[in-house]
Amino acid sequence: MKDYKFDKRVNRSLFNLRSYLYFFLLVSSLVSCSFLLFWHNMDISFNDVRGNALLTFGNVLVLSLLCSVIDGIRRKYTVERPVKRILNATHRLTKGEFEARIEPFHNLGRMNEFDVIIGDFNRMAAELSSIETLRSDFIANVSHELKTPLAVIQNYATLLQNPVLPKEKHTEYARTITQASRRLSELITNILRLNKLENQQIFPEAREYPLGEQLRECLLGFEDAWEKKGLTLVTHIEDTDIKADAELLTLVWNNLISNAIKFTDPGGQITVSLKESNGGAIVQIADTGCGMSPEIGRHVFEKFYQGDKAHATEGNGLGLALVKRVIDIVGADIKVESIYGQGSVFTVTLF
After folding, report:
1. What CDD domains does the record point to (predicted)?
2. Most buried of 8, 41, 129, 256, CB within 10 angstroms?
3. CA 64, 66, 69, 70 torsion: positive or negative?
4. What angle do CA 338, 342, 345 make, to 5 degrees?
5. Rounded distance, CA 112 to CA 167, Å?
6. Segment (H or E) for 345
7. Does the structure show a pLDDT above 50 at 310?
């Protein structure tokens, strides 16, 4: 890309009239003061002073011009060059070239103000590049996740138009469309929730409430799901009151319990515990499911990340991203411990 061109209103010549006037006033003032001091102690006739005034004025004009040109050369190399380099990079950045970077003029220890600005610009450009990558990945993932249920709905809706379709197939296809519609609705809901959370459009409203009662209510909401898979539910829930946003934390418990049920094989066990700790509370949700490797554990809270492809059709990779965002907003902490093939333990610490 071509270099950014300076605005035509900017004077880039070595001679600047305003600068020249400044130097003229400075030089004339210095010469006048020096001349008065010199003349005060010397026996010089007025006619001699008058005769040399024109020559002195000419010298002042020449000195002012010389100082102005020297200052223009100084500005060209110490100001204009770094400014031009910065403007070139900012122009590229505004055009969407997020890889734009500026080479510093000096090493650490000899840095000036322009080097500090350049360092801040490079960090800003790197952050924007990272955000742009996340945005692109997010759009790509959302598009993919939306296409899957939509394709299911479209295909089975087409099959339902067959006039000779058996009744049992008609029911099966209608059930599949309902499930795909529900998954699509959950995906859109989670995307909207996550967008509000990431843009701080949802703010926590802390109030004191019984956390143990909330956990029990969330568990009851999944009673059909764990009974259908024949899971054993073990609870160690103390009656503990906390001050937090109950609605936001409900998202956390529902997602963690849902994941525990989803990733636990039939006949397995889920354990939910709550205990008071230093004025706060510690909630643990454990399962005897498939577990995960350390690599998956490092990315498990990222948007659309689904480490277990065998269960990918049951979710959309946004549940734990929502959990992490809520935890950050309410000022809590979450960590996961997992052994592949043995299960996982999610620990939420509320302060």
Report:
1. HAMP, HATPase, HisKA
2. 256
3. negative
4. 35
5. 80
6. strand 343-350
7. no
Rounded distance, CA 73 to CA 80, Å? 10
The DSSP secondary structure of 223-238, one letter per residue, reads: HHHHHHTT-EEEEEE-
Compute the distance between CA of residue 269 and CA of residue 234 in angstroms, rounded to an integer. 7
Other beta carbons less than 10 A from residue 191's beta carbon? 18
Q: What tokens appear for 131 in the block?
A: 């955000």
**59: Cα within 13 Å, side-chain hemisphere:** 11
- What is the CA 197 to chain-centroid distance, rounded? 12
Give residues with Cβ within 8 angstroms of 191, minimum separation 6: 142, 318
- Output the six-digit token pair for 113: 């103000």
H/E element, 162: none
Q: Which pTM does this prediction carry?
A: 0.54
Rank 28-42, 54-68, 133-147, 167-181 by mean pLDDT and report only the highest: 167-181
**Residue 287: both structure tokens together:** 């399962």
Q: Which two tokens stand for residue 238?
A: 């103390």
Q: What structural domains does the chain harbor?
A: 207-350 (3.30.565.10)
> Tens digit of pLDDT for each residue in 157-166?
998 998 888 8
pLDDT in tens, 238-275: 999 999 988 889 889 988 998 899 999 999 999 999 99
Residues 117, 98: Cα–Cα separation, whole Å: 17
Eight-class DSSP state of 151? H
Tokens 């939910």 correspond to 272
